[in-house]
Amino acid sequence: MTTTTIPTGLRDDEIQIYDLHKSFGDVEVLKGISTIIHRGEVVCVIGPSGSGKSTLLRCVNLLEQPTKGRIFILNEEITDPDAFFDDLRTKMGMVFQQFNLFPHLTVLDNCTIAPINVLKKKKTDVEKFALENLAKVGLEDRGHSYPAQLSGGQQQRVAIARALTMDPELMLFDEPTSALDPELVGDVLSVMRDLANSGMTMMVVTHEMAFAREVADRVIFMDGGVIVEEGPPDEVIGNPRHERTKTFLRRVLDPTHADPGEEDAAYAKRHEVDGVRDSEGSSQDLHPPTH
Amino acid sequence: MTTTTADAPARKRLSPRKRAQRARIIQYAGLGLIVLLGVLFVDGRQMVNVFFRPDVIAKTIAPELGRALLNTVIYTIGAFIFGLILGTVLALMRLSSVAVNRWLASIYIEFFRGVPAIIVFMAFSLLPLAIPGLRLPLDPYGAVWMALGLVAAAYMAETIRAGIQAVPKGQLEAARSLGMPAGMATQKIVLPQAFRIVTPPLTNELILLTKDSSLVYVLGLTSEAYELTKYGRELATTYANLTPLVIAGLSYLIITLPLTFLVRRLEAQATKAR
């Protein structure tokens, strides 16, 4: 991992993160993250729950305010107190774990409301573009449905189309398939694969190792608020160097045959070292830290 | 315990079905007793004379009753709209990032919820004295709408605030992530959903407001501006008989019963949508 301390100014550097820290109260969730994501690159962020990967993604578009550090989007600093962060957000689409479609609007209106009101584009043009994007996700005939009438997988694909209708330069995905029934995951992943193949810059927080291995240009493994290991998927997932990466992957790839108590031990070890608590409070983190 | 001890008196245990049966019989017997007491002690003719005198009923049901009913509706709807707008502003003030806004809204809400409405109306009726030259628009409707609306806004503000806070946080995040500024996200995404959530309680508020409109008589209205209660009271004095007030009271049901029905349907819909 090379840590640069000044913005590069290179046109191809779409996301630059320098020494990013984030604390919730006394708990430091991110402890100095630095990385640069280039144009057209697909980066998958993996790691155990509570490792800070979702917080990292949410800091990038300022849904969480970093405690320390600087983030540049398209060479503009979004962490500048006077940044026009609303403008920068229009350039990065965000897809949430819980879809967050607007339930009071039709699928088509979900896609068009921001381009019409924020980008002040013409309604007819936006609707045409929205329908193209809905076609890309295989839902061109559902424009007049309401989100509640769709399956989870369909809702997530609408959420992707909604983000694409802003015509963003890059896309952020926060565990896009984690809230889906297993049989619905495939459709969302194949839409994301198409998007990656079309050259979109993507930062994806995910638990889908097969997807990361196939689609990602680079995989970042996070644990305890730091980047433990990063590199091409064949190295990080196929041949991890770090012990923490190995343990995590063994448990994710074959949960049935993991050593009993291994995760508890790994968890305890993590918290001995740095005392990180998962801000989302997932079930794995119900064990009290042992220090 | 399944075995009964020897020294306990052998009492026949009732099955749950028989017990429920017995409870029902006792309830029916109690209700029957009340009806019996009513028949024995209430003089039906006297009752009719005081509350339902036919000749007074005939005189009460006149075009003026219709106008009073219409006035009640006009007062209520106008006050509801006024209260809804003011209540929304107050709710947004309570959630504002500016501390002074939060304080002002809290003071307003606690004051008007804590003071009897009739005292507010009395004070309101003296406002033209306190501020010489003050003329409220659409006399007398403007004054009634404002007086009723000022009080209703305090209650509605709390309902609307709860509704805004019931909209999931992810909705605001999704709107902001699409580049919407805070104001636009509130207006286009949060408020429409909040109002959907609070439609049943706000309809309840409309029912309460319908009944509260009976208090506006303290504002001193001309006979064309009478609402139902004032109309009933005037006729009751004229005929020295309560019947007109009873008719006026029953007339409120023409407004409130359909609204009650509506609330029930809206609540059922809200449950289903969840």
What does this structure look like?
The complex is a heterodimer of chains A (291) and B (274). Chain A is an alpha/beta fold and 291 residues long. Helices cover 35% and strands 22% of the residues of chain A. Chain A has 10 helices and 10 strands. Chain A has helices at residues 53-60, 85-89, 107-117, 123-136, 152-164, 182-197, 209-215, 233-236, 243-253, 262-274; strands at residues 13-24, 27-38, 42-46, 68-73, 76-77, 92-95, 170-174, 201-205, 218-223, 226-231. In chain A, the strands form 2 sheets. Chain A has a 6-stranded mixed β-sheet, sandwiched between helices. In chain A, strands 2-1-4-5 form a 4-stranded antiparallel β-sheet, covered by helices on one side. In chain A, helix 4 (123-136) packs across helix 5 (152-164) and helix 5 (152-164) runs parallel beside helix 6 (182-197). The radius of gyration of chain A is 19 Å and the shape is globular. Chain A starts with 12 loop residues before the first strand and ends in a 17-residue tail after the last helix. Chain B has 274 residues and is mainly α. Chain B has a domain at 66-225: MetI-like (MetI-like fold), CATH 1.10.3720. Helices cover 77% and strands 0% of the residues of chain B. Chain B contains 12 helices and no strands. Chain B has helices at 16-41, 44-51, 54-60, 63-94, 99-114, 117-125, 127-130, 141-166, 169-177, 182-212, 228-239, 243-273. The longest helix of chain B is centred in the first third of the chain and has 32 residues, at 63-94. Chain B is flat and about 75 Å long. In chain B, 28% of the residues are buried. Classes of the chains: A alpha/beta (291), B mainly alpha (274). Chain A binds chain B through residues 61, 63, 86-87, 89-90, 92-94, 96, 98, 100-104, 113-114, 117-119, 148, 162-163, 166, and chain B through 168, 170-171, 173-181, 184, 188-189, 192-193, 196, 273.
